[in-house]
Amino acid sequence: MSSFPTSFDGVSVATKANVYFDGKVISHSLILADGRKKSLGVIFPGEFHFGTAAPEVMEITAGSCEVVLDGTTETLAVSAGSSFDVPGDSGFTIRVTGEHCEYICSFGTP
Amino acid sequence: MSSFPTSFDGVSVATKANVYFDGKVISHSLILADGRKKSLGVIFPGEFHFGTAAPEVMEITAGSCEVVLDGTTETLAVSAGSSFDVPGDSGFTIRVTGEHCEYICSFGTP
């Protein structure tokens, strides 16, 4: 169980939201003072595939999800307070059932 | 037609989203460096009533909506690039049809 920050301070936040899959996945993009990029998002019930360019760390901050990384067959059960890593130039399938799931996505260097 | 910023810089953003009406309305809360509070949100099709504590300025940044302020009967048609003001201790009904609508909500002093 990892903890996550309740806020990010001194950041630049894009006013326009990122809306994917007819609004089933929504995020807002942040750039931290040191240049690192993150997004804060909400995923509603469904199953969605995302590709990655940069590697990503996905911290789940509310709800839970099941994840299958591209090129693997194992299903990872991830709940609030936990995270999973996704390599760059890859992707993952995320499944949310029941309640919506919230995340902090942190982008690494491609 | 007013313009709106593409980003807010030097802000504090809450990691947890505000999710209303079963996810039909989602926002993230910001606090600007000078202490002013804003939220960035997305509204999916439907009709929703919000109460206000502080007065609010709602700038529509994508899509469009129809608004009826509490205590009035006039329907305001508001599209991207326009805004509407809501008094404090009041409220408004907002209706979105078709595409989702995005907004910047700026909270004033109660």
TrEMBL record, chains A, B:
Pfam families cross-referenced by the UniProt entry: Ppnp (PF06865)
UniProt keyword annotation of Glycoprotein present: no
Function statement: Catalyzes the phosphorolysis of diverse nucleosides, yielding D-ribose 1-phosphate and the respective free bases. Can use uridine, adenosine, guanosine, cytidine, thymidine, inosine and xanthosine as substrates. Also catalyzes the reverse reactions.
Similarity comment: Belongs to the nucleoside phosphorylase PpnP family.
Keywords: Glycosyltransferase, Transferase
EC number: 2.4.2.1, 2.4.2.2
Source species, domain of life: Bacteria
Enzyme class: transferase
InterPro entries: Ppnp, RmlC-like_jellyroll, RmlC_Cupin_sf
UniProt-recorded name of the protein: Pyrimidine/purine nucleoside phosphorylase
Claim: Cytoplasm is one of the keywords in the record: no
Protein species of origin: Luteolibacter flavescens
Catalyzed reactions per annotation: a purine D-ribonucleoside + phosphate = a purine nucleobase + alpha-D-ribose 1-phosphate; uridine + phosphate = alpha-D-ribose 1-phosphate + uracil; adenosine + phosphate = alpha-D-ribose 1-phosphate + adenine; inosine + phosphate = alpha-D-ribose 1-phosphate + hypoxanthine
